[in-house]
Write a structure and sequence with these properties.
This protein is α+β, with helices and mostly antiparallel strands. The chain has ten helices and twelve strands.
């Protein structure tokens, strides 16, 4: 978690971060989600400002992150930082994976994956992230029963990412997290994909559009998200997607 905290603090300094999430809805009522955070811009800026003689020490922590999918239970156990003995928490930790991304052998971002989460897993996850703040896509908490997805458009926000940043940032830098976070992201998108063909979509929102017979995409307008006077042409509170 120390390494994750370091990464999140780096995001708070960036103005060109790209976040892409993909949620795959399985026929058995479970879902798998991957959140991909690209911080190549930040790393380039940091290296440009760091003397060559210090770069190895400054960026060695990033190199400790695994470059293959590793669950956070194994990571905390490996670092000797495993605090919980709760079976429910350990079960959830074993289903949350992360990995460092690299480009040309240099750190370029971080990805999180929730593997085959059931409705009960999501209930347990809500309790888990009260203590361990993770930058997970809010849309993972929409209701899915294997055939029908009910999207609460109030989940079209960055609440989890804001809380993760707030919990890892210095105390004097937390007050305006919600108001400032909108300036730090270049692009945020979430793709929702289904194993079965989409039969119908009820409800509309400016940020959501159907891409093909098996997927829809949410393209966040981050500026509008933090503009109290922003107006939508279409903003139903609930969108229902039924699959065959």
């Amino acid at each position: 978690m120390k390494l994750i905290a370091l990464f999140l603090i780096s995001l708070f300094l960036l103005q060109s971060c790209i976040v892409n999430s993909e949620i795959v809805y399985h026929k058995d009522a479970s879902s798998t989600s991957v959140t991909d955070i690209d911080n190549r811009g930040f790393m380039a800026e940091m290296k440009a400002m760091t003397p060559d003689s210090l770069q190895q020490d400054e960026f060695s922590e990033m190199d400790k992150l695994p470059d293959t999918w590793t669950n956070i239970y194994e990571l905390e156990k490996r670092e000797g930082r495993l605090k919980t003995k709760s079976p429910d928490s350990i079960k959830i930790m074993k289903k949350i994976f992360l990995k460092s991304k690299k480009e040309n052998n240099e750190h370029s971002g971080l990805a999180f994956k929730l593997e085959r989460f059931t409705p009960d897993d999501y209930l347990a996850l809500k309790n888990f992230i009260k203590e361990e703040k993770l930058p997970l896509d809010q849309n993972i908490f929409n209701k899915w029963d294997g055939k029908t997805l009910i999207i609460n458009t109030e989940n079209f926000n960055l609440k989890n990412l804001e809380e993760a940043l707030r919990s890892k940032s210095p105390e004097d830098g937390t007050a305006n997290t919600a108001g400032m976070v909108g300036m730090f992201f270049k692009s945020i998108e979430t793709s929702l994909k289904f194993e079965n063909k989409i039969k119908s979509v009820t409800g509309k929102h400016d940020w959501l559009k159907q891409i093909d017979d098996y997927s829809v995409r949410i393209e966040y307008d981050v500026k509008a998200m933090y503009d109290q006077e922003a107006k939508f042409k279409k903003a139903d509170k609930e969108i229902i997607i039924v699959t065959e």
